[in-house]
Amino acid sequence: MTSASDTPRTLWVAVSYGSLDVRDHPIGAGSHEVIVVPVHPGSPLFLYGEGADLWRRLVGDGLDDAELSEHERDIAEEMEEMGIVARDPAHAARVDEIRPPWLTSPMHELVYALLSSVAAAEGIDIVFIKGPTLHAQGLRDRAHSGDVDCWVPVADERRFAIAMQRWGWTPAFSAFTGTRVLHSLTLRASEWGSAVDVHTWFPGMAMEPDDAFSLVQVRSELREFAGRPVRTPIPALHAVVSALHDVRPLQGRGPGTEQLARAAETLRRGGTAVMELAHEAHAGYALADPLRLAYPDAEFDAEGATVPIDWAWRLQDTTLGSYKEAIKLIPLRDRPRVIFRILWPTAESLRGGPTADGVASIGRTRFRRAVQGWHLLRGRKRARR
Questions:
Q1: What is the predicted pLDDT for the residue at 374?
Q2: Residue 186's domain is classified under what CATH number?
Q3: Is 223 inside any structural domain?
């Protein structure tokens, strides 16, 4: 005979891919109390009243089924369907504590938590770079960033992008996606309030992408975003990454006085360890000038440093010149495909871009790009005559 004590215990627990207590934040508008990201694809849920109260009670130790009234059990079952409550105390996304946001934008903080959670669920290593962590580490004064930047192994870029598609994020695939030309893939989802740049390497690091990721992963520290653990580079390495962002050539021009000064200031704030880490990151060529500005009395020899492979196309002052140099980075067997996709992008690529808006727009954009490409080639031929 089975006794009551032998009956399996049902424990209700709060789960999420990111949660914030916004009772004292303007985003709560005096009514919403908690924002919760569900554990299955969906939008953030704004809880208030008895729903918010019950969810907060399920945080931490959870509640035994016997502790719930019939009405509360109905609410818990609804929240279970919504993906923010589970009857599994060992659930990987169980919430042990809920805190107020520390970023100026709570929605951005939830994006960090979501990306980290999806990556963990997919078995993908991920490190977050730049953004508000630079401010938290004392490397810059500005607290907010419009976009979120993360870094994953190059082999996981497309898999991660597809996983985020299920959450409503559209990848901006291009002809150069998956090649050594592009260092990041942009994901867009307007309802979340920010774009995401998924990096697979970083301009200025003259080393293999896998080695570069291993460096930032090993030299990283844990930080919490919306209740989820996130890895970010240690301050000295983060200063190197931020400085590299400032000095990379754009549209045929190298960094100006303002960019060099900003990079040097970041490197100064990162401390003298930045010199060793710049060497480890094979960033000596790109950071030679800002390092000399930051540490004029230090011995720093960039002679013989390797030139980053993308500097050649970045220093071209024409679109055609940039394409010509970029294509040199692509294996011969892949060049016909890439050239064709430059002139005739896939619908998937155009839907992820900033200009497409429907089938008609995709058709017009394709035609316009093909015509522009033809005129560029014709103009190049005339210039040679």
A1: 57
A2: 3.30.460.40
A3: yes
Same domain, 123 and 224: yes
Buried b (16+ CB within 10 A) or exposed e, 255-293: beeebbebbbbbbbbbeeebbebbbbbbbbbbbbbbbee
Residues of the domain holding 59: 8-86
Whole-prediction pTM: 0.89
The mean predicted confidence, pLDDT, of the chain is: 90
Contact (CB, 8 A) for 204 and 237: no
Instruction: Please report the pLDDT score of residue 1 as a whole number.
Output: 46
Label the pairing between strands 148-151 and 196-199. Answer: parallel
pLDDT at 300: 72
Band of pLDDT at residue 265, cut at 50, 70 and 90: very high
**Could you tell me if 223 and 349 lie in one domain?**
no
Residues forming beta bridges with residue 315, ordered by sequence position: none
Q: What is the pLDDT of residues 144-185, one digit of tens each?
A: 898 999 999 999 999 999 999 999 999 999 899 988 899 999
Phi-psi region of 251 (alpha: psi -120 to 50; beta: other; left: phi over 0): left
Answer whether residue 112 is part of any domain.
Answer: yes
Give yes or no for residue 7 having a pLDDT over 60.
no
Q: Which residues contact 16 (CB under 8 A, 6 or more apart)?
A: 36, 37, 38, 39, 84, 93, 95, 227
Q: Is residue 92 part of a domain?
A: no
Among residues 381, 352, 350, the alpha carbon closest in space to that of 363 is found at 350
- Of 54, 86, 118, the one marking the end of a domain is 86
Instruction: Provide the pLDDT confidence category of residue 359 given band limits of 50, 70 and 90.
Output: very low
- Report DSSP state, residue 65: G
The answer to whether residues 171 and 241 belong to one domain is: yes
- pLDDT at residue 205 tops 60: yes
Burial per residue of 231-242, b for 16 or more beta-carbon CB atoms within 10 angstroms, e otherwise? bbbbbbbbbbbb
Total domains in the chain come to: 3
Q: For 138, how many CA atoms within 13 A lie in the half-sphere containing its CB?
A: 7
Q: Is residue 183 part of a domain?
A: yes
Q: Stretch 344-369: mean pLDDT, rounded?
A: 62
